[in-house]
Amino acid sequence: MTKLRLAIVGAGPAGIYSADILLKAERNFEVSIDLFDHLPAPYGLVRYGVAPDHPRIKGIINALRGVLDSGDIRVFGNVRFGVDVTLDDLKKHYNAVIFATGAVQDADLDIPGASLDGSYGAADFVSWFDGHPDVPRTWPLEAREIAVIGNGNVALDVSRMLVKHADDLLPTEIPANVYDGLNASPVTDVHVFGRRGPTSVKFTPLELREVGELNDVDMIVYDEDFDYDEAATAAVASNKQVFVIDKTLNQWRARETGTASRRLHLHFFAKPVEIIDDGAGRVAAFRWERTTRDGAGGVVGTGEIREIPIQAVYRAVGYFGSELPDVPFDKKRGVIPNREGQVLRRDPSAGTGGLFNQQMYGVYVSGWIKRGPVGLIGHTKSDAMETIRHLINDLGNWWRPESPSEESIVELLNARGVKYTGLDGWHNLDQHELALGEAAGRIRIKVVDRDEMVAVSRAE
Ligand SMILES: Cc1cc2nc3c(=O)[nH]c(=O)nc-3n(C[C@H](O)[C@H](O)[C@H](O)COP(=O)(O)OP(=O)(O)OC[C@H]3O[C@@H](n4cnc5c(N)ncnc54)[C@H](O)[C@@H]3O)c2cc1C
């Protein structure tokens, strides 16, 4: 019987669901799957993106762990594609590869002052508060007044983490350095800015409601943003999500404020114009243009410029994928070009400007690096199904590796001195973090240092 030796690069939800779906799929060949990740712990953004005070979503890790524990998948953590293994290596040892490397960079915000000291990408801050091993341990939390640019859930996560009292995060798995950093923060006001009106936000109702329940934080919304036109009124009437958001915001309009020590302000119809320099290269103020509805579902500038003093700004305007060595990349969209998960390379006869229209046999994609950084964890499942369907149907086009044995990749990693961590290693780290948590009366305390993660995993 034919056997598919499959490499999956990226042990986030897209990679793990791809493995699970393939193992359960109807097929007339055997499979043997190796899952690689450059982090010593699996689960991608579920561990390093989803906010620590969202334990229900973090709980998805239990389902993903069930897949890994099924016994049919080998895990190679602490192995970076492009450094520790290359595409040529994979071609030598596997019949195919699925890239599920996600998106971890901040999308650019193209306004003057975006690179000033005190202007931060949301992705970097998220990595810090979720204990990502590759970001610095300390975060400069010195601002009293902060702007957060963006009207999606990441903007809400960032704002909530900035404005929430650190003690209210103690029941979560936040690392000790994150608690200490947040606990010392002098913040009083966080201002969230979005270009559109309240009926066009990308927040989900649940996440929005959650910020209204924070201890000792007043929600501030501004009456001038609630002058709805016909389209906005129709959106409230016809869309349940918009209806709940509108209801929540209007409840806050009626709430008494003034007693809390911290405030979260929501500013709508605010298009970022500039981040102002204090003369020494640091953020001093945020300038925006008031917008208005254009009657066609969008907004236009009114020419009215406003400004607010702030000492830090967080840009939560989206994530962006990273290019992988020897793998085609669409620099505009930040994704690996593909047709339903089959990776496409440029038409070689058309040079560097050619369209991505030639299937690159043996190479597949899944998750955020396939379709861009939008959508919830659940969406990566349907994504993986589509990719796996093609992988199965493409049997005749798979690579024909010269060393397909399961030992050969282990020998290669050992020969290169790569300190990979296996599934047992993850179990060791998991137990260790739970024990650290238990000793401190908490559910878990994450290990943040990469060397320590590797040492605990490998029981060294
Ligand atoms: C801040 C934030 C909060 C979120 N909150 C929620 C939420 O509450 N609920 C929800 O449903 N969704 C949430 N999401 C969305 C969710 O995280 C994504 O839908 C999902 O993680 C995408 O899965 P993925 O597997 O494509 O990518 P990822 O989860 O990013 O996994 C990619 C994996 O690839 C690995 N990798 C990358 N490059 C390499 C390389 N060169 N070599 C080896 N490995 C590599 C990475 O280490 C990572 O483990 C959130 C996203 C963000 C950014």
From TrEMBL:
Pfam families: Pyr_redox_2. InterPro entries: FAD/NAD-bd_sf, FAD/NAD-binding_dom, Ferredox_Rdtase, Ferredox_Rdtase_adrenod. Its cofactor is FAD. The keyword Signal does not apply. NADP(+) binds at residues 151-154, 195-196, 207, 375. It comes from the Bacteria. It catalyses: 2 reduced [2Fe-2S]-[ferredoxin] + NADP(+) + H(+) = 2 oxidized [2Fe-2S]-[ferredoxin] + NADPH. Residues 5-167 form the FAD/NAD(P)-binding domain. Keywords: FAD, Flavoprotein, NADP, Oxidoreductase. FAD binds at residues 14, 45, 368, 375-377. One of its GO terms (molecular function) is ferredoxin-NADP+ reductase activity. Its EC number is 1.18.1.2. The keyword NADP applies. Belongs to the ferredoxin--NADP reductase type 1 family. This is ferredoxin--NADP(+) reductase. It comes from Cryobacterium suzukii.
